[in-house]
Amino acid sequence: MKRTATAHWQGNLKEGKGTLSTQSSILDKTNYSFKTRFEEGEKGTNPEELLATAHAGSFTMSVASIIEKKGLTLDKLETKATITLEGFITAIHLSIKGSVKDMDADAFAVVVKEAEQNCIVSKALSVAITSDNKLHSSV
Fold first, then answer.
1. Share of the chain above pLDDT 70, in %
2. Exposure of 42 by Cβ count < 10 A (0-12 exposed, 13-18 middle, 19+ buried)?
3. Of 23, 32, 69, 88, which is most buried by a Cβ count within 10 Å?
4. What angle do CA 54, 60, 64 make, to 5 degrees?
């Protein structure tokens, strides 16, 4: 399975702007820019917010999967992912609250730690990255 997303950008870094779209069309020419990345009050998203969203979603699904494999009944989970950006991403913190029938706090902590290490996005953050390119001449 492969999923795609596209980014379009025009202009220089600080004054330019772009749009992001996803294969599913849930993001369809969604605005992003230097201002949406580093300034408050600008409407649009940024790469760090999208990474936090992806990580929160993947991690939460991983916790749900582990709980299901244990044969327990999950009521609900809610995760907040916080990315620290200091020139580059220096940390991601996942904070999860849950309600699981017949599961105590210690058992939940073990599940959370397993999901933290093994969810698809956690694993992807240390995967090899490749690229290709094509330059179009501008006149």
1. 98
2. middle
3. 32
4. 145
